Amino acid sequence: MRFDVFTLLPETLNPYLSASILEKASARGLIEVHLHNIRDYTHDRHHTTDDTPYGGGGGMVMKPEPVFEAVETVLGSPPVCPVILLTPQGRLFDQKIAIELASHPQIALISGRYEGFDERIRQNLVTDEISIGDYVLTGGELPALILIDAVSRLLPGVLGDPTGAVDDSHGLGLLEYPHYTRPTEFRGQRVPEVLLSGDHAKIEAWRREQSLRRTLAKRPDMLEKAELTAADKKILQKIRQEER
Ligand code: ADE
């Protein structure tokens, strides 16, 4: 899968891209990340990428020309792949969106700086707008890395353990069950006996129940959207009754 990132600070993405699972994924040809400096597509002496807002007010606005030229030079006009603007106004990024994006052979990401983008970028260039959370960052570079990371790990071969990403999607919409590794006893606390039993059906049932318990306790809002079986609903009923 190919990612094209359009940014004023391409150097900020490199350290993470070149020192993680993503570096291995690139080396193995599973992903390609191309960084493009929007400033390279300016033609004035000062390489201007921002300007003051029409109508007055504070802050600077990202100019449309360099952003259009950068994206259209690299991807053609109009681009055939999704062109995603990273801003706090976008749809809220989650695992479902990561899965959806992972189905594309290529996506483009536009990371902004300054107060905002000239609205014509939104209207005539971008096909999707994504936020990574309800808070405001200084730019879209970290959001681009987060999106690339979450999407890349879903691609076949990127994770060492091929069941890793599958497990996530099996529990899509639920928090993960508790994990334990050796030693069996640590500072007086033992690993739950069921995990040592070797009874895979029992272990599976315990993990599902733990996922449901955790989600109910920590993120009850997620249960409204989660895909629940009749058995799940029965377990939740039991847990709620225990609490009364
Ligand atoms: N740029 C600044 N804040 C952001 C956010 N929360 N999500 C995506 N892009 C952003």
Short description:
The chain has eleven helices and ten strands.
Chain-wise SSE layout:
Blueprint: E1 2-7, H1 14-17, H2 21-27, E2 32-37, E3 50-51, E4 61-62, H3 64-75, E5 83-92, H4 95-101, E6 106-111, E7 116-117, H5 119-124, E8 128-131, H6 141-152, H7 163-170, E9 185-186, E10 189-190, H8 193-196, H9 200-218, H10 220-223, H11 230-243
Helix pairs in contact: 9-11
CATH class of the largest domain: Alpha Beta
The CATH architecture of the largest domain can be named as 3-Layer(aba) Sandwich
Shape: elongated
Structure annotation, total helices: 11
Detail the poorly predicted runs. none
Describe the protein's architecture and organization.
It is a single chain. The protein has 244 residues and is α/β, with parallel strands linked by helices. The protein folds into 2 domains: 2-152, SPOUT methyltransferase, trefoil knot domain (Alpha/beta knot, 3-Layer(aba) Sandwich); 169-243, Orthogonal Bundle (Trp Operon Repressor, Chain A), CATH 1.10.1270.20. Helices cover 40% and strands 17% of the residues. It is built from 11 helices and 10 strands. It has helices at 14-17, 21-27, 64-75, 95-101, 119-124, 141-152, 163-170, 193-196, 200-218, 220-223, 230-243; strands at 2-7, 32-37, 50-51, 61-62, 83-92, 106-111, 116-117, 128-131, 185-186, 189-190. It has a 5-stranded parallel beta sheet with strand order 2-1-6-5-8, with helices on both faces. α4 (95-101) links the parallel β5 and β6 (106-111). The protein is elongated, with a radius of gyration of 23 Å. The model has no long low-confidence stretch (mean pLDDT 95). Bound molecules: adenine (ADE). Adenine binds next to β5.
